[in-house]
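During the second year of the project, the team shifted from modelling isolated chains to modelling whole assemblies. The rationale, set out in the original proposal, was that interfaces cannot be judged from single-chain predictions alone. As a representative example for this report, we include one of the complexes processed in the last quarter. Its constituent sequences, exactly as entered into the pipeline, are reproduced here:
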Amino acid sequence: MKKDYIFDVIKNSPNSLTAEEIYNNVSQNININLSTVYRTLNNLVDKDLVTKIVRQDKISYYELADNEHKHYLICDKCNQAYPTDMCDIEKIERKIKRETGFNITSHTLEFHGICPECSKNAK
Amino acid sequence: MKKDYIFDVIKNSPNSLTAEEIYNNVSQNININLSTVYRTLNNLVDKDLVTKIVRQDKISYYELADNEHKHYLICDKCNQAYPTDMCDIEKIERKIKRETGFNITSHTLEFHGICPECSKNAK
DNA sequence: AGTGTACTCGCAAATGATTTGCGTATTTTT
DNA sequence: AAAAATACGCAAATCATTTGCGAGTACACT
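Output from the structure prediction step:
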């Protein structure tokens, strides 16, 4: 099953990948079609094995699902996403709920900037 | 100039609008083409007169630019975006910078849930 | 008024990520 | 092994957005 190849790539990647990156990677080993990658990815997401992340650039990124609540530091130079678990938004959420009555179920947070690596290279 | 019609719609709208909503609105008064709307919108964004907001649904929303730093409470029922200025992320940003060296220049934050209105209607 | 330059627009076609229909293969169930 | 269910490739469809091009319009300078 090609699903296994796709899932393996995701499991072995330290960072989130686009469907195309996954496709390129898997293609090195077997014949596969991009639509199969997308279909499989949606499948894995439905089964909560993989998390789909929609970033501001309108491209979706996929990574191994884990229960940790994470956010990303996205470097505007190299476009890499670095996960961080620092997130004290719960307080803000409580405050909003208290003051507006809006019942928050989730949030997305994305930081943009320049990663240490790119800062270094810029010099 | 059709730009004025477009800018007017944005100015007079209490909430952010999609390109299509703007197109529909302007179309009631004058003949206009969707591509003109998009072109004009990009123009206004470049001039910092209008802010473009990319939401998780991959559709862009446009609203009058103001210098206030805002975030949105997005209702998953009615899909309306309610701005909020509650945002204490600066602390988190400082912490991240201190601990990772990542130089953050901006962030995006989006809350999802059910707005009071929809909560009420659900009953 | 005449000419040149620069926008402004409409239209149709292109884009690019993602999805879908459909027919064929492959696997799983009985 | 036959039937039922999935998986897959391929080509075409989607959908928001962009772009090329050609015509129309405005402004500037002589």
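Residues 23 and 33 of chain A are 8 Å apart (CA to CA). The mean pLDDT of chain A is 82.
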